[in-house]
Amino acid sequence: MLYREAGQFRTSYEADQQIFPIRQDRIAFALLMAVAVVGVPLFASDYWLTAILIPFLVFALASLGLNILTGYAGQLSLGTAAFMAVGAFAAYNFQLRVPGIPILVSFLLGGASAALVGVAFGLPSLRIKGFYLAVATLAAQFFVPWLLVKVGWFSNYSASGVITAQKIEILGFVFDSPVRRYLLVLAIVALLALAAKNLVRSRIGRAWMAVRDMDVAAEVIGIRIMRTKLIAFAVSSFYCGVAGALYAFAYLGSVEPDAFNLDLSFRILFMVIIGGVGSILGSFLGAAFITLLPILLEVLLHGGAGLLGLNLSPGTPSMMQLVVFGGLIIFFLIVEPHGLARLWQIAKEKLRLWPFPY
Amino acid sequence: MTKSWKSAVLVAAAAAAGLAAAPPASAQQNTQFIGITGYRVGPYGANGAAFFGGFIDYLNLVNERDGGVNGVKLTWEECETEYNNAKGVECYERLKTRSALGPTAIHPMSTGITYAIMEKAPVDKVPLITLGYGRTDATDGRVFPWVFPLMSNYWDAATGIVRFIADKEAGNLKGKKIVLLYHDSAYGKEPHSVLDAEAKKLGFELRMIPVPHPGNEQQSQWLQIRQYKPDWVILWGWGVMTATALQTAQKTGFPRDKMVGNWWAGAEVDTVAAGPAATGYYAASLNLAGKGYPVVKDVEDVVYKKANKGQDAKLVGTVLWNRGLAAAMYTVEAIRRAQEKYGKKPITSEQMRWGIENLDVNAGRLKALGFNTMVPPVKVSCEDHGGSGLVRFQQWAGSEWKIASDWMKGDSAMVRKMIEDSAAKYAAEKGIKPGCMGG
Predict the structure, then answer these.
(1) A243 has a chain B CB within 8 A of its CB
(2) Residue A341: which domain range?
(3) 8 Å CB contact of A159 and B40
């Protein structure tokens, strides 16, 4: 009833090709952005900002990166965390060693460094695919943290290998409070998400999807496989690199190479699977789901145990989390391989007919 | 299908409501809330369970036996970090909001988490107590006013171990070969600089061999050790790595009584897991194991028997449980100290900082508290946030730890100089003007 596009006529190509062709979607998105930009800073507590919203945005960006590679271009990667590490350490070193470099430029250069590393580790994708490619990217996952630990220069010879991110300052404005950092991360993530959305609707994006669906056919219709795959690796790693830089600078403030371990790569892969493979929205849904679920479970279990008078071990929610994650991943892979984003789409289709389905 | 979706939505809505109304853990008057970032899950869960078991048992003891600290009851909430830095930050942020007075003091119990929250703590005015771990140069309280590596730090441990080995080698280490087998993390890298300095000073050869996390596979490392034929192996292990090292040492035929662990590689969870392979192994300790102390008897009587609030009876008297007990004791004594200045009511985290900085638990006080010689006396000052620097060695006798040395100090002059240099470098990098904060 409310969600009905009857009467909305599109009279130009621009109107037909915009991201949200339906007016209700545009309104809903504008409202969401208004809440994110105005509402959240007004009402969210520091805890929500620093422990939930900032990591959510950072992980959303990382899973966006992985989604470009895995969801759109069809190249499975287990090296996400390694590319994040490259971004974080590169941004740190640019800040440290290039005097007066603007922080945003460092983030971009961090992303660019990650893109270079991504291309290097993407080269095997020209020969191997699927499971074998996953193993090749796994090499990145082990090689990068090892290198960062082994070569002291990367961490400025810190005794423990831990780097402490520099202050975020743009044009004399210091991003020191949680609200400011949140807004900065939000702005970067929103811009990059917009870029990604447009990229996947462009010629490159369509080439990725053609390669994903059948690379031989794609080659036959004139898509250059090597270039397409390497661009996918570069763009994906760029996103992961920026996410890594934000992870270090805006979220934790200090990171060690070990923080970017295989677990993190898997976490981001789960976000993509649960959120929706091959969907920009899915990256955000998956990241929200995986960052919020543990906290939700903890509150539920603690509340539930309190009501029932049980003496719950503090470790139980963490164990439950593993059980629930495992269960959900199997559930999604079997029932809805396109994840939460697909569920959202189905809901929208139902809404169009509601309350009078055929 | 529709029905199940409806119920799913209901559950989600209920959960969201629960999330919005976070439980007010310390809404009651006259209680002191202590935030605990603990871990009982994951590869280091067994270590965490023992430490936090002792910690909470002591808090329960203070509540049940004494009715709190000067009538102020203790409350706490434990947040599971899984020894993961990102989760540790989330827990820290959560515990911070649980009470208007702050979380009193945080024991991160992880060098990585310590680093991750070390720069947030001064902004929030929350003191961190890093008992025998964390950032070593934080011992200089003029640069790190909010961090307290109480008792001894890693460099005390490293030089203490070197001295212990020197004693066994009749005082001369010239030309000896020592291997540092370390956990490849921030924790494992802390002793590198000081051991390098020791090697130069005393003329022994040092080789450092990393073991990647979690360390349950060490064939190649021990192959290197067998080639190198060192006189001693210093084991800077943690969690499953320690037991694996002991077992692999047995397989490769390296004598266990030529291996010295640091204090995080010397608990029952390590040696019992290693089985007979552990017999003869030395480990540094911050505290002694065993149940032969009045305070342990009190915990057993009051907390376990009378109140039935004990954490886990199996852990009582183990090295890490006793360490948790001591950590809680220092925390409670610092609260008491802060109350002397700020009044016998719940104190804020900021006041707690003063309490820790002016903490003085001498031998008489230890006896009064029933700890006797389990831990060394600790006297904290602004310049020295450690307060003791003493370390003691124990040897695993197959079923229990036997004391292998008296309380001893490493090369404390050298450690102090390195701490001051490193802290000054940090201060310069961060633009901190060193100085004491006072009250």
Answers:
(1) no
(2) 44-353
(3) no
pLDDT digits (tens, 9 = 90+) for A207-231: 999 999 998 999 999 999 999 999 9
Inter-chain touch B15–A296, beta carbons under 8 Å:
yes
Question: Each residue of B247-293: pLDDT tens digit?
Answer: 999 999 999 999 999 999 999 989 999 999 999 999 999 999 999 99
* Size of chain A in residues: 358
Q: Could you say which of A45, A164, A318 has the minimum Cβ distance to residue B80?
A: A318
Three-state secondary structure call for residue A128: coil
In angstroms, the Cα distances linking A129 to A70, A72, A77, B64, B353 are 11, 15, 10, 64, 57
Distances in Å between the Cα of A298 and the Cα atoms of A76, A305, B386 are: 32, 10, 35
Does A65 reach chain B within 8 Å, measured CB to CB?
Answer: no
Output the domain CATH number for residue A101: 1.10.3470
Does residue A9 sit within a domain? no
Query: The CATH number of B154-285 is which of 3.40.50.800, 3.40.50.150, 3.40.50.2300, 3.30.450.20?
Result: 3.40.50.2300
Contact of A258 with chain B, judged by CB distance below 8 Å, is answered with: yes
Is the peptide bond preceding residue B214 cis, with omega within 30 degrees of 0?
yes
Q: How many angstroms separate the CA of residue B175 from the nearest CA in chain A?
A: 26
Q: Beta-strand (E) ranges in B21-143?
A: 31-38, 73-80, 128-129
Domain ranges of chain B: 31-152+289-389+413-430, 154-285
Half-sphere exposure of residue A251: CA atoms within 13 angstroms, side-chain side: 27
Architecture of domain B31-152+289-389+413-430: 3-Layer(aba) Sandwich (3.40)
Give the single-character DSSP code of B141. T
- B→A interface, C-beta within 8 Å: 15-16, 18-19, 22-23, 38-42, 45, 49, 78-80, 82, 85-86, 89-90, 93-94, 96-97, 111-112, 115-116, 118-120, 135-136, 184-187, 189-190, 192-193, 210, 213, 422
- Is residue B14's pLDDT more than 80? no
Q: Count of domains in chain A?
A: 1
Mean pLDDT of B294-313: 92
- Rounded distance between C-alpha atoms, residue B416 and residue B431, angstroms: 22
The ipTM value here is 0.78
pTM score above 0.80: yes
Question: B31-152+289-389+413-430 and B154-285: same fold?
Answer: yes
Q: Is the peptide bond before B377 cis (omega within 30 degrees of 0)?
A: no
Residue of A nearest to B91 (CA): A51
The set of residues, in sequence order, having a beta carbon less than 8 Å from that of A133 and lying 6+ positions away, is A75, A76, A77, A124, A125
